[in-house]
């Protein structure tokens, strides 16, 4: 996140607001000051013969009026430049307003001047520009200035009664100033509370909008919003991928996806109509659309949700396999005890001296098949109590070299029968080492078993452009036919008379636990290639 430092002018303005918005009240005040001083100047000089302000001191009134106009113009520029700081400018301008208006009143009849009401406006505007207790400071300064001016004027009056009356009027005007300051204080307080509430609501709405956009864009289902004219207005990333949409909004649905547009028309005519699958433009799977009405100000549109039928089938299969796994684990526990009794009885029977060769052959068959059933039970129980993945970052080259040496000793094969290639040598993957070891043992043993008389295995690891890593286990066998390739990752599917059909299924499940994917493809030339695809590691 990029953080920029605020200017001194901005930091002294109202906290929590953008710099431009914080300076807006002071800009309005400077505009009002220029307009007021300009109008007073125009009226004074154009109607000087009529003397609309009852000016008693022409020189003082003229000089103060022109100075006040010049100050307003200069204040407008400094406010525009936001220099000096906000609070300093606001205090200076409000005190200047009070002083200038008091001098203009002194030059035009004192407290009896028609300009006295402008002093109330000056205090109220200062209370809005700098809200808080400063409002009462402005009222106090204006009242004291007014009383000082009245007292100074009364010293030159001939009538004592007139001086006392002016002081009374000044006191009443001071009360009006404090009333205006109190009212402005309350209004400013309410305005700040409303502003803070509106700001918080705006932040909440922005956060909610970002959350909704994130959820919609991260959905694995495609989402489209279509207006009453069947034009695409909104589409998430998944919908763009599945339908191959461009970035232009407003594209007619019939142009982007004709089959989907036809189904939408059917649904509009009959809302109870069941949608059919349509082909995806960018994937080999099919899409199942779901339609919902979308009411807008322009009319009734539609919300379309596209689900990948292959993904739905995969999820359904995973749920069924999970239920089947729990059931088979329970059955395996129940079978294990009687199976052990049968195996033990067969061993005791085989030790009898009264058995002929035919009976001994039957006991061997019982022993072999009980051992095979026990292997199946062990595999099933392994599935049910499979531990969670504990991934680690592995230096793949060193780890595979250690695995190769161990496998050569375990299987008692020559070193030239298992070759290893890692490119580049510093490849890294994040995986559970125990799970990866179990998968590679299973795949390499299958390769030795089906490679023929002179088995040759090759383990190749290489990186791809996206940052992912591919690990290939290649043999020199005859390969696997298409029908077997489609079903060999399913549980209990096997082409061998002595196999359990769980080896590849367990290997695939272990890969998925580590965010990897196990797949099969024909090797170049001849043989089989089992590929483990590790996704790119996320950088913190």
Q: What's this entry about, in short?
A:
With 540 residues, this protein is α+β, with helices and mostly antiparallel strands.
Structural class of the helices, strands and pairings?
alpha+beta
The total domain count is 4
Q: List how many beta strands DSSP finds.
A: 12
Q: What is the H/E order?
A: HHHHHHHEEHHHEEEHHEHEEHEEHHEE
Mean pLDDT: 82
Oligomer: single chain
Side by side, the strands of the main sheet go 2-1-5-4-3
Number of alpha- plus pi-helical segments: 16
Q: Low-confidence parts, pLDDT < 50 over ≥5 residues?
A: 1-12
Major pleated sheet: 5 strands, antiparallel
Give the radius of gyration: 44 Å
Morphology:
elongated
Helix content: 55-70%
Distance between the termini: 14 Å
Proportion of residues in β-strands: 5-15%
What's the SSE blueprint?
Elements: H1 8-11, H2 19-46, H3 58-81, H4 86-106, H5 116-129, H6 134-154, H7 160-218, E1 222-226, E2 232-235, H8 237-243, H9 253-256, H10 258-269, E3 278-279, E4 286-296, E5 299-308, H11 309-350, H12 357-384, E6 392-395, H13 396-411, E7 418-423, E8 428-431, H14 433-450, E9 457-463, E10 469-475, H15 482-487, H16 503-513, E11 517-522, E12 528-534
Parallel strand pairs: 7-9
Antiparallel strand pairs: 1-2, 1-5, 3-4, 4-5, 6-8, 9-10, 10-12, 11-12
């Amino acid at each position: 996140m990029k953080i920029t430092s605020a200017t001194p002018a901005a930091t002294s303005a109202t906290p929590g607001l953008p710099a431009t918005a914080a300076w807006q009240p002071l800009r309005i005040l400077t505009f009002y000051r220029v307009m007021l001083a300009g109008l007073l100047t125009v009226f004074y000089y154009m109607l000087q013969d009529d003397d609309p302000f009852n000016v008693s001191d022409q020189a003082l009134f003229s000089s103060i009026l022109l100075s006040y106009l010049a100050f307003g113009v200069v204040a407008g520029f400094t406010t525009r430049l936001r220099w000096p700081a906000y609070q300093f400018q606001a205090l200076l301008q409000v005190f200047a307003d009070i002083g200038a208006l008091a001098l203009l009143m002194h030059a035009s009849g004192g407290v009896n001047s028609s300009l006295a009401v402008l002093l109330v406006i000056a205090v109220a505007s200062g209370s809005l520009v700098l809200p808080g207790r400063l409002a009462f400071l402005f009222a106090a300064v204006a009242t004291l200035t007014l009383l000082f001016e009245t007292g100074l004027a009364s010293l030159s009056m001939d009538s004592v009664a007139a001086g006392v009356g002016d002081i009374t009027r000044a006191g009443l005007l001071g009360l009006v100033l404090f009333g205006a300051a109190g009212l402005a204080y309350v209004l400013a307080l309410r305005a700040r509370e409303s502003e803070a509430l509106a700001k918080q609501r705006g932040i909440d709405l922005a956060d909610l909008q970002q959350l909704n956009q994130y959820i919609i864009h991260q959905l694995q289902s495609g989402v489209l919003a279509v207006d009453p004219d069947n034009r695409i207005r909104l589409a998430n990333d998944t919908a763009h991928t599945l339908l191959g949409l461009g970035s232009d909004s407003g594209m007619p649905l019939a142009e982007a996806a004709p089959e989907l547009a036809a189904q939408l028309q059917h649904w509009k005519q009959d809302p109870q109509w069941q949608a059919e699958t349509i082909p995806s433009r960018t994937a080999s799977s099919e899409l199942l659309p779901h339609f919902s009405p979308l009411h807008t100000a322009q009319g009734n549109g539609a919300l379309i949700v596209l689900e990948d039928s292959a993904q739905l089938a995969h999820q359904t299969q995973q749920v069924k396999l999970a239920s089947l796994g729990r059931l088979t684990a329970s059955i395996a526990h129940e079978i294990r005890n009687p199976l052990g009794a049968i195996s033990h009885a067969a061993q005791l029977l085989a030790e009898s001296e009264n058995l002929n060769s035919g009976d001994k052959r039957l006991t061997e068959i019982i022993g072999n098949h009980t051992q095979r059933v026990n292997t199946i039970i062990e595999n099933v129980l392994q599935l049910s109590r499979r531990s969670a993945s504990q991934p680690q970052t592995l230096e793949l080259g060193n780890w595979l070299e250690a695995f190769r040496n161990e496998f050569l000793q375990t299987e008692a094969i020559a070193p030239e029968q298992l070759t290893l290639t890692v490119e580049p040598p510093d490849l890294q993957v994040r995986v559970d080492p125990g799970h990866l070891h179990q998968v590679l043992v299973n795949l390499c043993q299958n390769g030795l078993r089906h490679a023929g008389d002179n088995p040759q295995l090759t383990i190749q690891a290489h990186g791809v452009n996206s940052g992912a890593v591919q690990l290939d286990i290649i043999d020199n066998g005859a390969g696997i036919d298409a029908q077997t390739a489609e079903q060999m990752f399913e549980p209990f599917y096997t082409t061998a008379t002595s196999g359990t059909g769980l080896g590849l299924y367990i290997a695939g499940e272990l890969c998925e636990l580590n965010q990897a994917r196990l797949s099969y493809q024909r090797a170049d030339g001849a043989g089989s290639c089992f590929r483990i695809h590790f996704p790119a590691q996320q950088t913190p």
